[in-house]
């Protein structure tokens, strides 16, 4: 029975919602980025200023506002909660899977669309990021849609043998511009850089043959500019060019320097994609090599996706900072190529490659061992404390977290997924193999998010977050000593300071403070702050964190000076 397209879209949406929405609020937001972005959105609401981004009630020029606008809508509906901070990406997950199905159907057929959506939903990091409060899922989707509509524009203008392109080239060029504008509003001009680099590589691949009309290219740029000027232009007219100038300077620094602790090895992003995009990364490998093409647009679309992969991975290998989500745009071509492999195998347009099954077995078993080991180690973690020499890590390991063994279900399920998937591959039942590998991995992530991640979070930051939540509504200052965190702003629900001295850490430690001040430090760093400052009184220690308090010198509450 052939289901109507609207019914398929509804089914995909329901399945995606069941995968991505449950447990969004089960675990606290993680430092840095998740809490950072949520705090930007909270302060937008507190300050009633939606054109400029703030953190700690100071201008924060690192990101445009699009994602924060989404979060503010969610927070106005659900409060300043983890659920609200992550809901925009859960919605993005639903939209992304529907988009991939529709794109796959447009270029190939429904089977391919289903494979592509399945590959994205059933790979580790692509799935997990839809449960996060990070910017990248929407950013990547907008870039992909911009490139996709430009490909359709190219096909329509140049007479590719594709009969289902009903719109004229101008329409496709305009839609490409709209989505590019949204991408720039989400994370910045790197979106246009990626887009233009892919177009440039395609231009070289086609031996410098012009495949677009300059007026259409101008239309694309004008539409993208009009979208971005809804913020760039308004902010400049309202507050002058300073904020936008600082934002552009930051974008330049992003590519020319690396942040402390974020300089990885040269092949960093390829390892991240291989492991983090499992199992799609493994099954994408055969598609990098030549296969039999069924049509001109079949070959062309594959080449676009291969070029997108190499542009993203090479570009962010050149960039000094090594951060996982920098190469996350590559997840679109990787999942496409994985779907392409299964599609070609099933249609007997490519020979099955045994090495794909071998690599899938090795990585899948390793992942299952890691997941099971997490549970086994956690159940015996206190026995390992004497063998760990980092004092803060020792404190983390002392957290009172109950593990009952059921958390290992995710690892067992991963192992069963690999075994059954390999069985179907051996039988050359490629459709069943695809559903097993990707569907099973999606369930593994679902159970890991429900059973493992909340307990792991209790070790890493749980005690500090609990302390901050207790400070909500209290007229006080809260800050960290010896390390940086955005958690005091969001989880203590900080109000806009009335005393500018409160931004000065030394004043909070030594000055004539005007209200109680709380400090969070770590056991291996606290002594350098307390040994010569008797006014810092230790409240208690828990899980590697030390909680301190300093009271005003007198009961007369009045602004002090340094």
Description:
With 562 residues, the protein is mainly alpha-helical. It folds into 3 domains: 348 residues, no CATH class; 101 residues, no CATH class; 89 residues, no CATH class. 62% of the residues lie in helices and 5% in strands. The chain is built from 25 helices and 6 strands. The chain has a 4-stranded mixed beta sheet. Strands 1-2 form a two-stranded antiparallel sheet. Strand 5 and strand 6 form a beta hairpin. It starts with a helix and ends in a 12-residue tail after the last strand. The C terminus is likely disordered. Pfam families: PMT_2.
Q: Could you give a short account of the major beta sheet?
A: 4 strands, mixed
Chain-averaged pLDDT: 92
Strand content: under 5%
The coarse overall form would be: globular
Q: Tally of extended strands? A: 6
Helix content: 55-70%
**Weakly predicted, low-confidence segments:** 556-562
Derived from helix and strand composition plus strand pairing, the structural class reads: mainly alpha
Whole-Å distance between the termini?
A: 77 Å
Widest sheet, order of strands: 3-4-6-5
How many domains, in number, for the residues? 3
Summed up, the helix count is 25
Rg from Cα: 26 Å
């Amino acid at each position: 029975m052939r289901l109507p397209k609207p019914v398929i879209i509804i089914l995909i949406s329901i399945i995606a919602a069941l995968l991505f929405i449950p447990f969004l609020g089960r675990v606290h937001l993680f430092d840095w980025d998740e809490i950072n972005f949520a705090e930007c959105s909270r302060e937008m609401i507190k300050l009633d200023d939606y054109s400029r981004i703030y953190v700690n009630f100071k201008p924060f020029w690192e990101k445009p506002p699009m994602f924060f606008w989404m979060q503010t809508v969610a927070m106005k509906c659900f409060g300043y909660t983890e659920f609200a901070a992550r809901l925009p990406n859960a919605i993005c997950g639903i939209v992304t899977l529907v988009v991939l199905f529709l794109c796959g159907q447009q270029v190939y057929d429904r089977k391919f669309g289903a494979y592509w959506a399945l590959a994205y939903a059933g790979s580790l990091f692509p799935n997990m990021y839809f449960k996060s409060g990070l910017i990248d899922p929407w950013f990547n989707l907008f870039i992909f849609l911009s490139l996709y509509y430009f490909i359709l524009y190219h096909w329509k203008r140049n007479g590719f043998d594709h009969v289902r392109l009903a719109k004229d080239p101008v329409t496709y060029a305009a839609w490409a511009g709209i989505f590019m504008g949204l991408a720039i509003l989400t994370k910045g001009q790197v979106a246009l850089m990626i887009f233009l680099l892919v177009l440039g590589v395609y231009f070289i691949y086609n031996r410098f043959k012009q495949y677009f009309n300059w007026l259409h290219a101008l239309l694309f740029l004008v539409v993208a500019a009009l979208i971005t000027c809804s913020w760039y232009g308004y902010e400049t007219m309202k507050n002058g060019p300073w904020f936008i100038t600082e934002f552009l300077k930051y974008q330049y620094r992003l590519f020319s320097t690396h942040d402390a602790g974020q300089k990885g090895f040269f092949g960093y992003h390829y390892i991240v994609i291989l492991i983090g995009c499992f199992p799609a990364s493994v099954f994408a490998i055969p598609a990098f090599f030549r296969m039999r093409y069924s049509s001109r647009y079949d070959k062309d679309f594959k080449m676009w996706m291969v070029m997108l992969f190499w542009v993203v991975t090479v570009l962010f290998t050149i960039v000094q900072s090594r951060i996982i989500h920098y190469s996350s745009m590559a997840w679109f071509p990787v999942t496409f190529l994985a779907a392409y492999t299964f599609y070609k195998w099933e249609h007997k347009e490519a020979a099955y490659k045994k090495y794909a099954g071998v690599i899938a077995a090795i990585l899948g078993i390793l992942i299952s061992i890691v997941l099971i080991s997490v549970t086994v180690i956690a159940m015996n973690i206190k026995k390992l404390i004497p063998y760990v020499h980092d004092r803060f890590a020792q404190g983390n390991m002392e957290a009172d977290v109950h593990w009952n063994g059921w958390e290992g279900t995710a690892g067992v399920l991963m192992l069963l997924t690999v075994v059954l998937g390999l069985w179907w591959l051996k039988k050359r039942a490629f459709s069943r193999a695809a559903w097993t590998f990707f569907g099973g991995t999606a369930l593994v992530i679902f159970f890991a998010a429900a059973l493992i991640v909340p307990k792991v979070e209790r070790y890493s930051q749980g005690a500090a977050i609990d302390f901050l939540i207790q400070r909500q509504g209290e007229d006080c200052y809260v800050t960290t000593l010896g390390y940086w965190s955005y958690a005091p702003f969001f989880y203590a629900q900080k109000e806009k300071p009335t005393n500018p001295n409160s931004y000065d850490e030394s004043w909070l430690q030594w000055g004539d403070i005007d209200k109680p001040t709380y400090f969070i430090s770590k056991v291996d760093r606290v002594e350098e702050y307390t040994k010569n400052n008797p006014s810092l009184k230790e409240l208690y220690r828990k899980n590697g964190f030390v909680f301190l308090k300093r009271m005003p010198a007198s009961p007369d509450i009045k602004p002090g000076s340094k």
